[in-house]
Amino acid sequence: DAYFDQWRHRFDLFHPERPFYQVDDPRVQPKSVVSLKYGVGFLHDQHFDHDGEATGFSFSPGQAAQAVVTLQAFGLGGLSGIEEKHTDAPCANGVVFFVRGDTLKETLLLNMPAYPQELFFRHTDGDAPSWEQENPFADARTSPNGLLDYLTWQSRRPFLYPRRTEGGDVVVADYKLGPGLRLSDDDSDPQKLYFSSKQSGILPLRFDEDKALWRDSAALFSFGSLDEDGTRAPAAFRWLALLIQELEDAIYLPKEKTYHYLALGLAKNRGKMLFARHETLPLPTDYLADTNLVRRLASALATAETVARDLLRAVRVAGMHLHLAQPEQVSWRSYGIHLHAPTAIKKVAEDEINGWVQHSGVERAYWAALDVPYQSFMVRLPAERDDALIGWQRQVRDAAFAAFDLIHQYTPDKGRSLKADVHGRAALAASLHKSLPLLYSLPIQEPTP
């Protein structure tokens, strides 16, 4: 109450001098809030949405407030109507991670690392949220003063125009949107996962339309600095690890508990949003304190990636026997198929087989089949270790063979189809014996009478 007695005027959405999260930019012209309908201020495409100025579209004050907050965090870079362009808002580039507790209070506390602490974000004495600053746009700074400044970074200059309807309700139908503070690449987001790329340097993890997030989940428990291994986990994960590893005398967190974490973000192509996504996955606290356990998890994920390559290779073997007259006489060296065959596969035939493989959807089916089993495996691994790994390899094997069977839907009913299936299945079985040693080294169990 004392805090809001002091700062209440800065949270007034329509304050005459300092409206919440807004500033008037005289360089831009007012326009309909329909472009804010989905919260990121991109161009309105009437092919898919017929709301607009002609329909009298407007926001309630509550909806307008949500749109302004979302815009400051997720707005996309692009043209602004003036020479200066919009830049990406902090959350528009990369996946943002939150640890989820059993209640809202617990969730807030789990994502609140000690402050100030240089381990998670650079700090200066001038750090403060934007509403406590006299003028966040006083200078053309590109680096936040600290964590509080960053979390309330104003990447846009929106300005709402409220009006009253004939019924007396307050609505917002028009607004301005000017470019805001530009953020340099030197400051990393504490809520993101970063990794090192040889081609592009340090990058945040982004959503991929063709790749589920769990396939990169082992990196979330890499708590070294970027200089050590090129990967840095989100601050909330590192903070929980510190509570468990370095403060063992105090019971801050229950051990052997499974939380969940939320990953959210969007995928974009320049100034266009392709899709928005959020995923929820388990977070057993054992992984925060046991590096060997994390290595096992990473190894299990690497095994699944290896088997995915084995699957594609086997399907290409089937494709060669299906599409080529003499497949044994043709080599596909990049995939290790028929290495000693006298003739290299022709580009036309290679493209035809690759198109057939992609059309069959075997890789998508394989990864989709492992989504739920992986979550169960991740929870089981800390307690069951080898048994959990064996169970995971069994799931991987079954998913690979089930995905391989999909080629029957795209195989013409003729004599060579059976031959293609036999050769492809044999190639997959041979590869799996190498890729899943833990599973295939087990003694054969006799069936129970």
Fraction in helix: 25-40%
- Helix count, DSSP H or I runs of 4 or more residues: 12
Distance between the termini: 72 Å
User: In terms of structural class, how would the helical and strand content be classed?
Assistant: alpha+beta
Radius of gyration: 27 Å
**H-E string:** HEHEHHEEEEHEHEEHEEHHHHH
In total, the number of strands is: 11
**Poorly predicted ranges:** none
Question: Strand-residue fraction?
Answer: 5-15%
Keywords:
449 residues, alpha+beta, three-stranded antiparallel beta sheet, 11 strands
Descriptive notes:
- With 449 residues, the chain is an alpha+beta fold.
- The chain contains twelve helices and eleven strands.
- A three-stranded antiparallel sheet has the order 1-4-3, covered by helices on one side.
- Strand 8 and strand 9 form a beta hairpin.
- Helix 7 packs antiparallel against helix 9 and helix 9 packs antiparallel against helix 10.
- The N and C termini lie far apart (72 Å).
- The model has no long low-confidence stretch (mean pLDDT 85).
